């Protein structure tokens, strides 16, 4: 999205992030409704947006606004063929213009399993759900 729309001096594309936040707020209320109305099922909201915004110093994800590979400006936003990607993929949050790196996915899954912050998951993290007596 940064490639496509620019940032107007922000570190992100604000109008996209605002839309994501509106969607996520509705999704949280939907998860709450499901948990209240579907007693035989348990749902968890994983706040990957928030997790991406609050990386911990130990994650190593230092580059969050540039992809690891040179991406096309076309609709696919994938890596340009025959170009050398970044030397240390573990520092990058995004592989191409849209897909997270394996390192970013590891951060998200770790915090989904064991929430670092209360807003990482709702109503609980996966570890708590797995340990619960359903």
TrEMBL record:
GO CC annotation, single: extracellular region
InterPro entries: GDSL, GDSL_esterase/lipase, SGNH_hydro_sf
Protein's GO biological process: lipid catabolic process
Entry keywords, A to Z: Hydrolase, Lipid degradation, Lipid metabolism, Secreted, Signal
Keyword Signal assigned: yes
The keyword DNA repair appears for this protein: no
Main subcellular location of this protein, as a coarse class: secreted
Localization in the cell: Secreted
Gene3D superfamilies, per the entry: SGNH hydrolase
MF annotations from Gene Ontology: hydrolase activity, acting on ester bonds
Family the entry assigns: Belongs to the 'GDSL' lipolytic enzyme family.
Protein name per UniProt: GDSL esterase/lipase
